[in-house]
Design a protein that fits this description.
Blueprint (H helix, E strand, L loop, with lengths): L1 E7 L2 H8 L1 H18 L6 E6 L2 E6 L4 H16 L16 E7 L7 H17 L5 E3 L2 H8 L3 H11 L7 H18 L7 H13 L9 H4 L7 H8 L1 H9 L9 H6 L20 H16 L10 H10 L7 H14 L1 H9 L1
Parallel strand pairs: 4-5
Antiparallel strand pairs: 1-3, 1-4, 2-3
Helix pairs in contact: 1-2, 3-16, 7-8, 7-13, 8-13, 13-14, 14-15
GO molecular function, one term: hydrolase activity
Protein name: Diguanylate cyclaseand metal dependent phosphohydrolase
Keywords: Hydrolase
């Protein structure tokens, strides 16, 4: 038995702009989408409260549920409903948490609690995504590095009003850095913390890039690309304003340097680039290659890993590229393959 909770993203913003009657129509529309999606399956769909829905899936593993719901999420993203173009994602979207009944659960309330925690985790990752309950991740999510992380979170949230995709990208890179960094035994605790915090704030300089360039769908003009490249310098200036974040400056400024010396802003080469910046470069590039935008194709995880492998020793540090590839293959690729099969 598997339970999923789905929460319509930014429903309050939609209500505030379009009115409660239109909000009710959206809830009805979304409920019908869910009912249609489970036709012919032994699944039960219900409205759980407010803009939250539940799907109960008997005889279904959490992996199968993930594949089904992530596919549904993408279909919902491409389904238009009047007014959704004015909310942050400019499309209909939901966050989803999934939990599976396990032998050590002594009552159904625990299943509900775990699905709810997974939903909270999905929303914390920037919304419009599906998350499986994992006790390890839930515990890590609660460790906010206290004041430092909270302060950086507030800075990154500025993107919500300007470029929600940079916000979500920053949250995903943060998540990858947290999980990958915890498996790099050669890092000290301080290096691990620096990597995680740097991952969260690495693109803060894009707050200075004009909105029309950040959100441009076509190919950037040469002068526009030069402006984009300045985000690493602007980011350094923003972060340097607070002395306590000095350790993060190399990650913010140097995560676009290349191992072969053909990156920017300085053209540093090999181990001239600080170790943590070399690691962040790989994580950042992987997420950029696999990031979803409505109506635009993306690389699969496997295609992105092949690209990292191909560019190891030129764009990427070959040692950390190999370690990251192994990490993704073990912890992310099984779910991605399950999704493709379904």
């Amino acid at each position: 038995m598997t339970l999923a909770f789905l929460d319509l993203d930014d429903f309050k913003k939609y209500n505030d702009r379009n009115g409660h009657l239109q909000g009710d129509r959206l809830l009805t529309f979304f409920g019908k989408l869910l009912q249609k999606a489970v036709e012919g399956m032994n699944f039960t769909v219900a409205r759980y409260g407010g803009e939250e829905f539940a799907i109960l899936m008997p005889n279904t593993t959490k992996e199968d549920a993930y594949a089904f719901l992530n596919r549904l999420r993408k279909e919902v993203n491409d389904t238009y409903f009047e007014g959704v173009e004015h909310i942050p994602y400019r499309c209909l979207s939901f966050s989803c948490g999934i939990a599976e009944m396990e032998k050590d659960m002594y009552e159904s309330e625990e299943l509900i609690h775990r699905a709810d925690q997974a939903l909270y985790y999905a929303k914390a990752q920037g919304k419009n995504n599906v998350q499986l309950y994992d006790k390890h991740n839930m515990c890590l999510d609660e460790i906010k590095f206290k004041q430092d992380l909270e302060a950086l979170e507030q800075q990154v949230k500025f993107f919500l009003s300007k470029d929600v995709y940079t916000y979500r990208h920053s949250k995903r890179v943060f998540k990858y850095a947290l999980e990958f960094g915890s498996r790099l035994d050669e890092l000290t605790d301080h290096e691990r913390q620096t990597l995680i915090l740097g991952a969260l704030i690495h693109d803060i300089g894009k707050i200075e890039v004009p909105r029309d360039i950040l959100n441009k769908r076509g190919k950037l003009e040469k002068h526009e690309w030069e402006i984009i490249k300045k985000h690493v310098t602007w980011g350094r200036e923003i972060v340097a304003a607070e002395k306590r974040f000095d350790d993060l400056l190399p990650l913010v400024e140097l995560h676009h340097e290349r191992y072969d010396g053909k990156g920017y802003p300085y053209g540093l080469k090999g181990e001239e680039i600080p170790k943590l910046a070399r690691i962040l470069c790989i994580i950042d590039s992987f997420d950029a290659m696999t990031t979803e935008r409505p109506y635009q194709p993306t690389k699969t995880f496997e295609e992105a890993l092949e690209e990292i492998e191909r560019c190891a020793g030129t764009q990427f540090d070959p040692v950390y590229a190999a370690k990251f590839i192994a990490f993704v293959r073990k912890h992310y690729l099984p779910l991605a393959e399950m999704e493709q099969l379904n």
